[in-house]
Amino acid sequence: MAEHGSGHAPSNGNGSPFIEIDRASWAELAPATPLPLTPNEIVELRGLGDVLDLREVSEVYLPLSRLINLYAASAKQLHRATSDFLGKRAESTPFVIGVGGSVAVGKSTIARLLRELLARWDDTPRVELITTDGFLRPNAELERLGLMGRKGFPESYDRRALLRFVSKIKSGAEEVRAPFYSHLSYDIVSNAEIVVRRPDILIVEGLNVLQPATRTHRLAVSDLFDFSVYVDARSNDIARWYEERFLKLQQGAFANPKSYFHRYATLSPDEARATARDIWDRINGPNLAENILPTRSRATLVLRKNAQHAVDHVLVRKI
Hints:
Blueprint: E1 18-22, H1 23-27, H2 39-45, H3 54-86, E2 95-101, H4 107-118, E3 127-131, H5 139-145, H6 159-171, E4 176-182, E5 187-196, E6 201-206, E7 227-232, H7 235-251, H8 269-292, E8 301-305, E9 311-317
Parallel strand pairs: 2-6, 2-7, 3-6, 7-8
Antiparallel strand pairs: 1-9, 4-5, 8-9
Helix pairs in contact: 3-4, 7-8
């Protein structure tokens, strides 16, 4: 698939592993599915700068939840057939979904929305969401390793711990614990954990969730996904969204004296924009180009957003 981030659209020709569907055609795929969320619930799920309303949910995410529901149901059927073949009866394990994409592209909002929509389906009432932020190395360790300026790059994560966590989920463990990350302190919180207890579906959201295996990491967490979503947009649009979000955070969360980014709270609008552009150019932009965008072709499904932050095309991997 060609580099959408560089301005080239992927082809539907024989060389592409994806079927590309425009927004209108995609919306028609689940016309009889009732919307289970209220307008207020949708507002509560929406992140800073995201375009998320009843129409967007109905036309884009309701069909997506139906497709994932079909995949999850098929996985259960396959499990039963395999158990019959092997002559062994074992409980089915959680269906794991990966949601990846750049900073500021809206993947966190999409992950939260999918959690709510998928939990409304009768056969998957227990849906849990975990973000890979909890598997970032603590700031003190990043400082010691000289990686603080590369926070969010693959090497800043404890990939073995993340892999162990998802492996335990897929093994059917009754209870699995993950570290807790605070966006206020911008660090792992010691003595705090997130507990996941045998869900029907686990959603794993993060920048680098679709990374392949490497020479030093023979198994990747993406190898354990049953379905994966990549949230896509042109790099220039994402950079603009990041800048706009930074300005909103500067006027909101950064004003909290306990915030790691409190030092940015008193910047003038011009200084704040310059700071946001600098952070993007040094960290988020290179991470997108070098590590995140190259994983797009590994996804089961790609949601492509336009300049207005709305999905206008969906790419589904051919089966």
